[in-house]
Every structure is written in structure tokens, then in C-alpha cells.
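User: Here's a protein and a ligand (XIL). What would the complex look like?
Assistant: Let me lay out the input and then the predicted complex.
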Amino acid sequence: MKWFLGMATVLGLAAIVLGPRGQIWGQTSRVEDKSLRAAAGKRVQIGVAVNTGLLGDATYTGLIKREFGSVTAENCMKPASILKAPGEYDFAETDRFIEFAERNGIEVIGHTLVWHSQSPSFLFASADGKPLPRDEALRNMREYITKVVGRYRGRINGWDVVNEAVADGGGLRQTPALRAIGEDYLLKAFQYAAEADPKAELYYNDYNIELDYKRASGLELVRKLREAGARIDAVGIQGHYLLTSDMAEIQRGVKAYTDAGFKVMITELDVDVLPRAGQGGADVSALERTGMNPYVEGLPNDKQAELAAKYGQLFDFFLAQPNLTRITFWGATDAHTWLNGFPVRGRTNHPLLFDRKYQPKPAYDRVWQSLTRASG
Ligand code: XIL
């Protein structure tokens, strides 16, 4: 026993000395033990949106396997990627993605079934743009959901059934599905999904529904759906934040949903570090001249610290909410974040925990600490 403990200490010290990140972790755990997934333990699931174009990149997949417990496809499971023409489904990319996850013991989140964006127009409108008759649109939606959810029945942990149905100005967003079917398109979508895979969790997913300007509409929608009999297993709050996002407002908002009896998941977390005012224009040099693209050479130390502090506040709060059960980052590294192209194209953004060389940033360590404390 004594020699065993001695060996363990030596191995532990070796792990500290040999740590590839050149940092001392304050504990004699094995190198591979430092990951978000391990730090989260059973307290919360840490997920990531995956760019399936990178599944052949071993550094990328290595990072995903090490750090995350669930994956969401960043694009390949959206209706426009799967349904190429009426009745013509293409599951190749999604099959590869799900097989990757299964091979590596990672759970899969389906994103998304009904959305006004990245979806073929023929589902809900005729060629001249007019809404289809209700019956036809319902039939199309049912067929799509049944086919896709049915194909992966038992292999998907949960589905974002409807994405972004709340309008920024309040009430329901005017979408092709709403125009063709009417307000109950949401309820129907939840029913069809539940029928196609009774064991998969079902989520309503949206952005900014925790913020003051959209909260009442978001809450009203999910409450009404629940009253009408929809099985909403969780409300997905996307969590596309800014360095300047107001923590108190986010806290009020998340609590409003958990207080209403909903489980909450943060489904698309990132923290935009670039200026938002005066957007528009894709001329990169013009962006640089106007200061809209200030961190092309890298994120300066003071901003790294600010980002780490913001992530720390977010995680400390999220993890203090017992009914908040998953936090998914919208991308793995700054090299691939959608925020390099949104809302202004051609910028250099730094919103995630890993930099362009796939190395953990100070924000990573801050999140890791928060997870370790919460799962301890
Ligand atoms: C984004 C992807 O990240 C981009 O690659 C794509 O070009 C557009 O869509 N809310 C959502 C996600 O629900 O599906 C969006 O993903 C980001 C905003």
C-alpha cells in the first residue's frame, strides 16, 4: 500500500511537470483529467456545436472528445441541409456526425426541426411564395418530423423542436409555418416529435427570451404550449451574449423560466467581444478603419481577462440554478465561430474558450474552476 501511494504521488507529480499547457493544476490528477466534461461531473452537461466539415481534423475531434459531453450539429441537421427537394432527404452528413458521437460516448442534441431560417421554402409555401393550405403544410411538417426524428429514434438525447418562434417586437414571429398553419403549428410540431421518438427530450429554443424585452412573450408561449399539452422537457436559451451583457438582466430572465417550472438549458453560448454599433457593410478594411474589427492580431490581455470574468459570472450563476442542466457552447474554437461572420462579415472574433490554435484561453480556466467548485 505504501509503495503504491508513493508511486501514485510520483506519477501525479510527473503529470504536473509534464502538463502540456505548462500550468500547475493544484492537484495530482492525470493529464487527461483536466477537461470541462470531467470538471462538470454529474452536475451539468457541457456541450458544443460541431462543424461537421472538421470531423477529419484529429486535433479538432480530439478537443471535442476530451472536453464535451454532448454535441449539437452547427448546421447539418437543419431542414435545409437534410431536405434537398420535396421528398428528397439527405442524411449522409448527419449519419456521420451521429456515428462520431456514438463511437466516442458523446450524447447528441438534434437542432432543429421547425425554424424560419435555413429551411426549404416548399415546406410551407408554394413556388410563388403564398402560404400553402393548412392541411398541406401540416402534412409536410408531420412528414418531415416523422422521417427525421424517426430515423434517429433512440439515438438523440433531445430535439430543439421549434427554434426562434418569438418575434423581437413581442408575440409570435411571422414565419412561413405560422402563415400556413396558424398558431398551433408549435403544438403540432411537439406532438409529431413526441410520437416519432417518445423517449427523446423535447425543447423549445430561442434567443434573448430571458432578456427584459422578450421575456414576457417567451414565457407566455411556453406556458401556453404546456397548458395545451405539449411536452416541453426544457426551454433552450441560446445565450449569445456580449462582453457588455447585463448579468442582472440575464439572471432575472433565467430565473423567470425556472420559477415557472421549466428546466432551462443554455444551448448556444458565446460571448461576442467585438463592437456592435453601426453594423453593416462587408468591406473588411473599412471595418478596420472604423474600429469595428479591433482584434485582428489577437485579443489583448485586458480583454482576455474581461472575457474570463464574464464567463466566470455566467457559469457561477448558471451552476447555482438546480434546474439548469446543460450548457452548450456555439462552437469549439475562435477559428470557426459563426461570430467571425455575424452580424458583420469578415471580422476576427474571440468569443469562445479555445483560441485559433485550439489552445485554452484564460476564460477556459475560469470556467473550469467554476465547474470544479460546483461539482465538488
Ligand atoms: C448559425 C451557424 O452557426 C452558422 O454557421 C450558419 O451560417 C447560420 O446559423 N441561432 C441558431 C443557430 O439557432 O442555428 C445559428 O447557427 C446561430 C443563431
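Summary: Residues 74-75, 163, 238, 268, 338 surround XIL (CB under 6 Å).
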